[in-house]
Amino acid sequence: MTSTVPDAEQSNAPPARAVIDARDLVKRFDGNTAVAGMSLTLAAGEMVGLIGPNGAGKTTLFNLIAGSLKPTSGEIWIGGRDVSQESPEKRIGRGVGRTFQIPKPFLEMTVLENVLAGAQAQDGERLLANFLRPGHVRRQERLAIDKARTLLEFVTLSGLGAQPARVLSGGQRKLLELARILMADPQAILLDEPAAGVNPALLETIMDRVLDLNAQGKSILLIEHNMDMVTRLCTRVVAMALGKPLAEGTAAEVAANTDVISAYLGATA
């Protein structure tokens, strides 16, 4: 019997090309409102920049979309499904991965092992499978290792695969985190300040890899203060302040918006 989506849910569903559709999100913490009615859509294959002064609510919005926080109100749709109450693990399974402003790799594990930690649905994680299907488990592990090595080459860390992650610089750790996220084959990637604390040479590498991923069809939502990076990468920019949407358009249009300028100057003051 073929299951169907109820009519009410169909009427609420986002446009077919929307990978992520966040609607009127509100998040309160003990009376403080970090996100106050924020809506944002990420279409298939789109690269969108999310900017705003410190304290604007950008990372809280990321946490809501990725599932590490539940909204006080509002909805989050991924791939046409309301996932507002689902766990981060389920959202990864639905094709949404995220990085963090400050990467936290497993420092004593090797770089390769850190990437392998991002593999999803590995049968070897279940005790019985190791006894009942050992050949299958070994084949799956070999495929995962091959994939992890390919991803390390993609992020220019292949020569460091056997080294402990603690030897990596801050920028290299961001590349490592990107490789680990890619092990899960996400269709949408949330990047939280990938340029922060990164030297110019590695920043160019990060931007090149993000452009490559977008060219492969990955949808990218990018939090970033580096406006040169935002301008070079993003076709659309959304600005927020005090948890609310402030402006939307091209990078040049948003940067020239008087409300955006006032928000940044006010934050500086």
TrEMBL record:
From which domain of life does this come? Bacteria
Domain ABC transporter intervals: 20-267
Q: Which family does it belong to?
A: Belongs to the ABC transporter superfamily.
| SMART domains referenced in this protein's UniProt entry, alphabetically | AAA (SM00382)
**CDD domains xrefs:** ABC_Mj1267_LivG_branched (cd03219)
- Family annotation (PANTHER family): CONSERVED COMPONENT OF ABC TRANSPORTER FOR NATURAL AMINO ACIDS, CONSERVED COMPONENT OF ABC TRANSPORTER FOR NATURAL AMINO ACIDS-RELATED
**Name of the molecule in the record:** ABC transporter ATP-binding protein
Q: Mind telling me which InterPro entries this protein's record contains?
A: AAA+_ATPase, ABC_AA/LPS_Transport, ABC_transporter-like_ATP-bd, ABC_transporter-like_CS, BCA_ABC_TP_C, P-loop_NTPase
- Taxonomically, what lineage is the organism? Bacteria, Pseudomonadati, Pseudomonadota, Alphaproteobacteria, Hyphomicrobiales
Q: Pfam families this protein is in?
A: ABC_tran, BCA_ABC_TP_C
Query: Which GO CC terms are listed, alphabetically?
Result: plasma membrane
Keywords assigned: ATP-binding, Nucleotide-binding, Transport
Gene Ontology molecular-function annotations: ATP binding; ATP hydrolysis activity
